[in-house]
Amino acid sequence: MIARTLTSLRRLLGALTMHAALATLLSATVLADTEPAPAISATFDGEPMAWYLHGENEDVSASFVEQRQALAVDITGFTDASDPSPRDSLALRLSLSEAGETLTLEQAEAVYFISSDTTGPVYHAAAGALNVTLTRAERDGAWLTLVGRIDGDFELERAPGGQSENEPATLSGRFELRARRVEF
Fold first, then answer.
1. pLDDT for 80-115, tens place per residue?
2. Which residue has the higher pLDDT, 158 or 33?
3. pTM for the full model?
4. Which of 8, 59, 80, 163 has a CA 20 to 30 Å removed from the CA of 145?
5. What CA–CA distance (Å, rounded) separates 179 from 143?
């Protein structure tokens, strides 16, 4: 009786081990086939958009430099997770003050590139036109983690630094990203 129970228990454990291994393999396959999560998800001029970061280590599309008691954060998101084409990309510049471990947003501006040509036309949101709320801002050595919301109004510019035209667009969404420190 005990021998039969032990044999049944071994079979059950063997089947459970096989099921666990199969479940692990299937979940790894599903994860490998999924697209990475966007760093920025928003609507731009009413259209749902997603922007992805590119690069690793020294060649990243989200980086920051230290400037006295401040951080200048540059973020460029691309609409294609595998192709860093400038068309429909979104470039953000955030200025953060740093007091001890506390990071505070001081200023934000953004450019939305309409075409593959980075010289224009573009939609530009100057400082004061964007409302950025940081729900998380943490620095861990060479990495900066930022999570929050971004909302604001953009104006069309036909040429860089040119006169804005009365063709507004609105951006509204959220972001979650990591930026790497760049040293010169």
1. 998 899 999 999 999 999 988 899 999 999 999 998
2. 158
3. 0.77
4. 80
5. 6
Q: Please say whether the beta carbons of 53 and 39 come within 8 A.
A: yes
Identify any residues that bridge with 24 across adjacent strands, giving them in sequence order. Answer: none
Are 54 and 41 in contact by the 8 Å Cβ rule? The answer is no
Q: Answer whether 96's CB lies under 8 Å from 103's CB.
A: yes
Whose tokens are 């953009």? That residue is: 154
CA atoms 131, 74, 147, 175: torsion sign: positive
Per DSSP, helices labelled H in 34-183 are none
Beta-sheet pairing, 164-181 with 62-67: parallel
Residue reference for tokens 């934000």:
108
**Residue 159 in tokens:** 């040429």
Handedness of CA 163, 169, 174, 175 (dihedral sign): negative
